[in-house]
Amino acid sequence: MNQRTAAVLTLSDAGARGEREDTSGPAIRERLAGLGITVTKHIVQSDDPDGIERRLREWVADGVNVIITTGGTGFGPRDHTPEATRRVIERDAPGLAELLRMDGLQNTPFAALSRGLCGIAQSTLIINLPGSEKAVRENMDTLAPVLPHALQLITGDTEH
After folding, report:
1. Any idea where the domains of the chain sit in the sequence?
2. β-strand 66-70 against 124-129: which pairing, if any?
3. pLDDT (tens digit, 9 = 90+) per residue, 99-158?
4. pTM reported for the whole predicted model
5. What residues contact 151, with CB distance under 8 A and at least 6 apart?
6. What's the rounded Cα separation, in Å, for the pair 132 and 22?
7. How many C-beta atoms lie closer than 10 Å to residue 152's C-beta?
8. Can you tell me the mean pLDDT for 49-72?
């Protein structure tokens, strides 16, 4: 199997201004490393939907295998990550989003408030996770059994 690469995008207005520490992004990086996936990019930026779309498109063009976003998936007035992601993805992966919400509901009813999307743009899987470090860790544990196989399918890697 070829080496897999990832990019992590933390979306937080306060984080982008340096007023809040990003703990969710490092949690994603840690979990991806445990799966043998190398994080080649990690940025904290504001919740601006046009900026989110530009960053996602840039990373898709760079050919990373998976982009995981954290933050901006709730009901808040500045939560635009799913809308920006929708503009970029070419094929939906609703089963992954359903899996994340279903598993999250085992821990908190607030998982029902996540509007996160999952989908494919070219040969890149994009996954929206909530901004909470606890939710990110739980979601990454849920993804761990299926993510490597999903990336094999997307990239057409039939060698195991």
Report:
1. 4-155
2. parallel
3. 999 999 999 999 999 999 999 999 999 999 999 999 999 999 999 999 999 999 998 876
4. 0.96
5. 4, 37, 65, 66, 125, 157
6. 10
7. 17
8. 98
Residue labelled with tokens 């299926």: 146
Tokens of 148: 């490597």
Q: Report how far residue 15's alpha carbon sits from residue 21's, in angstroms, rounded to the nearest whole number.
A: 6
DSSP notation for the chain:
-PPEEEEEEEE-HHHHTTSS---HHHHHHHHHHHTTEEEEEEEEE---HHHHHHHHHHHHHHT-SEEEEES--SSSTT--HHHHHHHH-SEE-HHHHHHHHHHHHTT-GGGGG----EEEETTEEEEEE-S-HHHHHHHHHHHTTTHHHHHHHHHT----
CATH dotted code for 4-155 = 3.40.980.10
Sheet containing 4-11, strands listed edge to edge, beginning at the edge strand earlier in sequence: 37-45, 4-11, 66-70, 124-129, 118-121, 91-92
